[in-house]
Amino acid sequence: MPGEKLFDLADLSTVWVISDIYEYELSLIKVGQTATISLSYFPGKVFSSTIDYIYPSLSGDTRTAKVRFTIKNPSAQLKPQMFANVEIKIDMGRRLVIPDDAVIDTGIRQVVYVDKGEGNFEPREILPGLKAGGMTEVMQGLEAGEKSSFIRHIPH
Asked: Which of 18, 62, 107, 123 has CA 20 to 30 A from 80's CA?
């Protein structure tokens, strides 16, 4: 039709990767942090980039903010709208953590059972923090050195 664009011209020698970061993780994210980026389209190939922009708004639906990475794409293998996995390694420092399986979520509070010895266990309410790698940070309720016990559900 008259007035409609026929095609877009785009320089794909450099592309942006836009990633969603959950609201609760935003305090850990900063411009300049390095990430590894992989695509199912290129099994085994990993791209490295740094965060070059953190968008100022938050999505009300997903509770995520967008961060941008720039990747060189000289052979134009990367195409607009491809999906990617982005992994940002963050030094969390020293924190008290327990396995996610040790935390019982009652819907109202988070509880762990502390091993008091001789077969005795004490339920203890905790204040959980960040979760990563199958572990939950404990902000309050446990001290370093205390042992928690948990029952794993093993499917039949």
From this structure: 62
- What is the CATH number that goes with domain 97-149? 2.40.420.20
Architecture of the domain spanning 14-88? Beta Barrel (2.40)
Residues of each domain in the chain carrying CATH 2.40.420.20: 97-149
Q: Does the model's pTM come out above 0.90?
A: no
Per-residue pLDDT tens digits for 75-128: 888 888 999 999 998 877 788 888 898 899 998 999 999 888 888 888 999 999
